[in-house]
Structure to design on (393 residues):
């Protein structure tokens, strides 16, 4: 607590005595100001919210104003871990249109230096996707006749955790998709929007899918940490994605488990996907997924799914091997995997065809192009289409 008070005081002191001002007091905002030097147009900052419940500093989102627009603005961003310091942070003058910007690495800090032409400029680790964005998206699609937007649960912080169900009729095969178990991984939600956009579309494959299957999707699991701009990663008492043990802590995890168990009593539970975004600091493409099913029929199913995806998208994520049960906790894809279930005291979903963790990338596609909000949505759209083809063929 003392640490936080000191930071708040520093923040206030710098903001009251400096010409340059920094502010993160808005939805999803987060930064600590370490120093401001007006004469060189320089600020030194660090992702904040290092508290007992937020143990990885990897998300920043703040605005700078009253700087000298005639000179380069220099922003030094300090980090604990290099892989969490973004290769391509983003800036915007309006919080709507974001542009990637190169940063230079030096001694556990990233530096952005550029001329910014407007009075106020916003910076973030990657394209922000905040809590109200997911509420706006669910409202936008709510009138679709095949969509049921509902509440999974009220979070520990009293926020509504939205859930989307897509179907055309009853008695269907089951597909479950969740995202944002790690609150800072904002790239995931652009993928999710594209994914849902395809599945609710009037394309013939999507129509066939909706007659055969029901999609249950929870686009933002850790709404509380997204809302305050905390990373959520490795948080105490437990990271969301380590909480899929026989006894779970978080309400959203408990409720997804309970609903999966209920819905699969009467329907074939076929596919589970947990959407993440890897390290913002990766210097190579990290568009990937984890494969637990080495050499089994379920691996053939996953391979088939990505073969279909590749036909639509012309790129393919890298296959990584899973570090199964190493942490001593069960993670979401393991919970639904149908593997080692008796041993681990979790339900044995024998009908599951594949379960995997999918990792969206912050920086570069496997074909060398940069990921943008649009191409992240397109990735989701193609993944949705591949799922429809896989389920209905
Ligand atoms: Zn993650």
């Amino acid at each position: 607590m003392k640490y936080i008070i000191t930071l708040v005081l520093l923040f206030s002191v710098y903001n009251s005595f400096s010409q340059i001002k920094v502010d993160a007091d808005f939805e999803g905002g987060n930064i600590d100001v370490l120093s401001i030097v007006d004469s060189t147009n320089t600020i030194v900052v660090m992702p904040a919210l290092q508290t007992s419940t937020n143990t990885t500093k990897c998300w920043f989102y703040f605005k700078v104003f009253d700087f000298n627009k005639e000179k380069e603005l220099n922003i030094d961003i300090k980090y604990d871990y290099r892989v969490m310091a973004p290769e391509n942070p983003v800036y915007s003058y309006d919080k709507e249109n974001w542009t990637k910007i190169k940063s230079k690495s030096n001694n556990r800090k990233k530096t952005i230096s550029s001329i910014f032409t407007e009075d106020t400029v916003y910076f973030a680790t990657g394209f922000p996707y905040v809590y109200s964005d997911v509420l706006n998206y669910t409202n936008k699609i709510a009138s679709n006749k095949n969509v049921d937007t509902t509440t999974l649960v009220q979070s520990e912080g009293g926020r509504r955790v939205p859930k989307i169900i897509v179907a055309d009729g009853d008695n269907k095969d089951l597909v479950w998709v969740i995202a944002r178990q790690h609150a800072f991984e904002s790239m995931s939600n652009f993928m999710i929007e594209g994914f849902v956009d395809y599945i609710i579309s009037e394309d013939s494959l999507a129509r066939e899918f909706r007659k055969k299957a029901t999609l249950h999707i929870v686009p933002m699991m850790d709404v509380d940490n997204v809302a305050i701009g905390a990373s959520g990663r490795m948080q105490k008492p437990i990271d969301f994605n380590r909480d899929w043990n026989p006894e779970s802590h978080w309400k959203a995890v408990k409720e997804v488990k309970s609903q999966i168990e209920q819905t699969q009593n009467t329907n074939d539970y076929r596919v589970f996907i947990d959407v993440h975004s890897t390290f913002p600091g990766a210097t190579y493409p990290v568009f990937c997924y984890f494969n637990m099913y080495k050499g089994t029929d379920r691996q053939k199913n996953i391979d088939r799914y990505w073969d279909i995806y590749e036909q639509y998208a012309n790129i393919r994520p890298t296959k990584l091997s899973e570090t199964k049960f190493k942490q001593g906790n069960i993670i979401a894809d393991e919970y639904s995997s149908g593997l080692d279930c008796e041993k681990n005291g979790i339900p044995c979903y024998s009908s599951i065809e594949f379960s995997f963790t999918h990792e969206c990338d912050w920086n570069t596609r496997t074909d060398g192009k940069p990921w943008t909000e649009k191409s992240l949505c397109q990735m989701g759209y193609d993944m949705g289409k591949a799922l429809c083809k896989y389920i209905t063929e």
Remarks:
- The chain has two domains: 2-124, 131-392.
- Residues 182, 185, 276 surround zinc ion (CB under 6 Å).
- The mean pLDDT is 91.
